[in-house]
Amino acid sequence: ASDFFRRKKWIGTRPALRFANRKGAPVYEFYTKEFVRALARYVVRRLAPALRSRGTATLLEIGSGDGRLCLHLRHALPPQIVVLASDAVAHPEPAFPVTLAVHSDVLDAVERPDLVLICWHAPNQDFTAVVRDKESVQEYLLLGPPDSSDVGHDAATWGGPDEPRLPPRGWHRKAIPSVSRFMVSRADLTG
Predict the structure, then answer these.
(1) CB neighbours of residue 32 within 10 Å
(2) How buried is residue 5: exposed, middle or buried, by Cβ count under 10 Å (0-12/13-18/19+)?
(3) What is the pLDDT of residue 3?
(4) What is the Cα–Cα distance from 1 to 121, expressed in whole angstroms?
(5) Distance of CA 26 to CAs 29, 38, 66, 132, Å?
(6) Please, which residues bridge with residue 98 across strands?
(7) 65 with 122: CB under 8 angstroms?
(8) What pTM does this model have?
């Protein structure tokens, strides 16, 4: 975690570990105001061409859990950006309307997702191939620890164990430090 969060003296505490590992609804990412604002700024910048040409754009999150990230983004993004959440598992207390469907079905059902967000991709699975096949998708963001089968599939999602890790043909991989510097996740917890 960044020094910013270490100064908050919350990371590594027993209450944080209990919260992150709560039964039935584990927490993978802690959505701070700084993180949500940074992610919203990035999304607006990346969707600006679609907003200029069509007046609207769609952000689709797959694997949304209870929809909490989409809830915060909905409040941080302009109303011209449609925010949609989906997950294959129903959650007892969704924070935002979450469509119950597997990622491939959601991508088929949503007419024109411009940007797809995958936060804490399911381990040892790859959702990105289906996302890349959707013609309207200009970009997808993977949030969570990179280069590991803990989040996604080592080879299919991240480019395999060989260095340098190469994204699939036609796609480019880049870090987004303006967003990632504010990310705090269960991977940052110690104890």
Answers:
(1) 16
(2) buried
(3) 43
(4) 19
(5) 9, 24, 10, 28
(6) 85
(7) no
(8) 0.81
Q: Which positions of the chain have pLDDT values less than 50?
A: 1-13, 16-17, 20, 191
Q: Quick one: pLDDT at residue 103? A: 86
**d(Cα 68, Cα 131) in Å, to the nearest integer?**
21
Helix (H) or strand (E) holding 85: strand 81-87
Res 53: pLDDT:
96
Helix (H) or strand (E) holding 189: none
User: Cβ distance 112 to 136 under 8 Å?
Assistant: yes
pLDDT of 98: 93
SS3 assignment, position 141: strand
Cβ-Cβ contacts under 8 Å for 44 (sequence gap 6 or more):
77, 78, 81
Q: What is the C-alpha separation between 148 and 144, in angstroms, rounded?
A: 10
State the Rg of the chain over Cα. Answer: 16
Token pair belonging to 25 = 């609804």
Task: Give the per-residue pLDDT at 65.
Answer: 86
